[in-house]
Structure formats: structure tokens, C-alpha cells
């Protein structure tokens, strides 16, 4: 499998430089204290990891439960079990770090809660439906933004303890409906949907950190962000989340999704690809 990854790495990085300008711009802005040589080393490791993700994504769509458990291991699942025994739903906050597709595929079979991944559908009309079916084959339910409120309300009303998985590091659409903070030294907008659900229903919020122990092997470690979000000041949870994620990225920078145009927003608009700013009204 990883022979194919090496081929993907060569074509994506060495031959075509897939989104190389975006990656280098992000690394330079986030790590100005590092030398060019140090940033190039992070860049090289990142593209190796990205190539691994491509082949692991395909593998994950066909992998058996024992294979997924071997490759994606929960270190302290007992934290989630304790909330399940209390009948409490939990919000799992993480990021595009490590291998998030393994989490989507295996959440429903690795936890006692009803696992729900919240995200966006793939745009491809050919591949999208197939991938959607394979992601849910072991019990994880995938919910999209247009129905998530109804789904969460339904399970809360019927007292079904769920584990709501939310990747909260994506760039928001509207700068005026975002939480702004300094992240990796940059003025950054964050989604606060996870905190909003947690505060509305007083669900415990748990951050999970994903580490890559070796090629194709990941460990997931859970840590508490908030026991009772309803009593927390607004935005305190998303701020805490940003700090945990920042620590993880600084520790293993090659595992984060640097080829994503994460910093597309200013406080009053959106940065176009040509560098100009489109003002967004409140």
C-alpha cells in the first residue's frame, strides 16, 4: 500500500507541486521563527503524510473492523464510557489532523455511544454516494449541516447518548458569524457550532488528539474541555479548543492539513485568490 503512497508523493510534491504555494505560504506565516530549511523539512514530511492519507482513505473504505481498530487505537476510551453510563451525549472536537477518515469509519464501532460525524458531503456525484455508504457501514451516522439541528434534537428528546464528532478547524464562511482569536500567530476565525450545541444541551465537550505512531498507525487520546458548557462564558470552549489544537500542531506540524486555504477571511470580508478582499456585510 505504501509503495503507492510513495508514487503519489512523487507526483503530488516533486512533479506537480500540488498546492505547494498554499503550503509554503501557510508555513511561512505560522512559523516565521523557523529557518527556510526547517520549514522545507516540515513541508516534505507533510507531503509524505498527505500521500499516506490518500491511500489510507481508499483502504479505510474497505477495511475490516479488526484492521481499523489496529490502525486507529483509542488510548483512553473509558472517559467516553463514563459519560455513556450516565446517559450523557458528548461533543468530540478535533481537527484535520492525523487521519480523520479512520475516525469517521470506525467511531460507531469503537464507542458505546451512537456515533455521529457532522460534516459536508463530497461534491462528486459519481464517488460521493459510494463513499457515503462505506463510511456508515460500521454504525457511524453521517449528518450534514442542513439537518444537524433536527438530528441532535431528535436524539436528545429520545435520550439516546450520542458522540457528536465535529472537525472545528475549517475556515468559516462569514467573518461576522465567527469567533476570532490569535492562532499560530495569526488573526484567525473559528467555527463555534460545536460550542453552541454543547451550551444549548449542556453536553460535555471532549477534545481528542490524534498522533501518528508509525506509518498507518494512529492513537487517539481524549481530554476534557468542559464538563458543563451551559455554565461557561461564551466562546471559552472554542478558545480552549484553539489552544489545544495549536499545541498539537506545534508538536507534530506535518500532521495538519496545510494545503487547505485556512486563512481566507479578514474581520470584514473574504480574501479572493488574486489577493483582493470581498467585503461581507453584517
User: How many runs of DSSP E, i.e. beta strands?
Assistant: 12
Q: Report the principal-axis shape.
A: globular
Structural class: alpha/beta
Strand content: 15-25%
The profile of the biggest β sheet is:
7 strands, mixed
List low-confidence stretches: none
Task: Describe the fold and architecture.
- The chain is α/β, with parallel strands linked by helices.
- The chain contains ten helices and twelve strands.
- The strands form three sheets. Strands 1-9-8-2-5-3-4 form a seven-stranded mixed β-sheet, sandwiched between helices. Strands 10-11-12 form a three-stranded antiparallel β-sheet, with no helix packed on it.
- Strand 8 (205-214) and strand 9 (217-226) form a beta hairpin.
- Helix 2 crosses helix 3 (36-60).
- The radius of gyration is 19 Å and the shape is globular.
- The chain starts with a helix and ends with a strand.
At a glance:
This protein has ten helices and twelve strands. By secondary structure, it is an alpha/beta fold.
Amino acid at each position: 500500500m505504501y509503495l503507492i503512497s510513495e508514487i503519489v508523493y512523487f507526483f503530488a510534491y516533486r512533479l506537480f507541486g500540488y498546492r505547494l504555494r498554499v503550503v509554503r505560504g501557510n508555513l511561512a506565516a505560522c512559523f516565521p521563527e523557523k529557518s527556510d530549511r526547517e520549514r522545507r523539512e516540515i513541508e516534505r514530511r507533510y507531503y509524505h503524510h498527505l500521500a499516506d492519507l490518500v491511500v489510507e482513505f481508499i483502504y479505510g473504505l474497505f477495511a475490516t473492523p479488526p484492521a481499523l481498530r489496529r490502525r486507529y487505537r483509542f488510548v483512553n476510551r473509558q472517559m467516553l464510557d463514563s459519560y455513556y453510563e450516565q446517559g450523557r451525549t458528548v461533543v468530540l472536537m478535533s481537527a484535520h489532523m492525523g487521519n480523520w477518515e479512520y475516525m469517521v469509519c470506525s467511531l460507531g464501532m469503537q464507542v458505546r455511544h451512537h456515533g455521529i460525524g457532522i460534516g459536508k458531503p463530497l461534491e462528486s456525484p459519481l464517488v460521493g454516494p459510494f463513499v457515503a455508504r462505506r463510511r456508515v457501514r460500521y454504525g457511524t451516522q453521517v449528518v450534514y449541516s442542513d439537518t444537524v439541528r433536527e438530528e441532535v434534537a431528535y436524539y436528545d428528546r429520545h435520550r439516546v447518548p450520542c458522540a457528536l464528532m465535529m472537525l472545528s478547524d475549517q475556515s468559516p464562511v462569514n467573518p461576522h458569524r465567527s469567533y476570532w482569536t490569535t492562532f499560530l500567530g495569526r488573526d484567525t476565525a473559528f467555527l463555534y457550532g460545536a460550542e453552541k450545541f454543547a451550551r444549548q444541551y449542556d453536553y460535555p465537550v471532549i477534545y481528542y488528539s490524534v498522533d501518528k505512531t508509525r506509518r498507518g498507525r494512529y492513537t487517539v487520546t481524549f481530554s476534557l474541555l468542559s464538563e458543563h458548557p451551559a455554565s461557561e462564558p461564551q466562546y471559552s470552549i472554542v478558545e480552549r479548543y484553539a489552544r489545544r489544537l495549536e499545541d498539537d500542531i506545534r508538536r507534530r506540524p506535518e500532521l495538519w492539513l496545510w494545503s487547505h486555504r485556512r486563512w481566507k477571511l479578514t474581520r470584514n470580508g473574504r480574501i479572493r485568490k488574486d489577493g483582493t478582499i470581498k467585503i461581507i456585510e453584517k
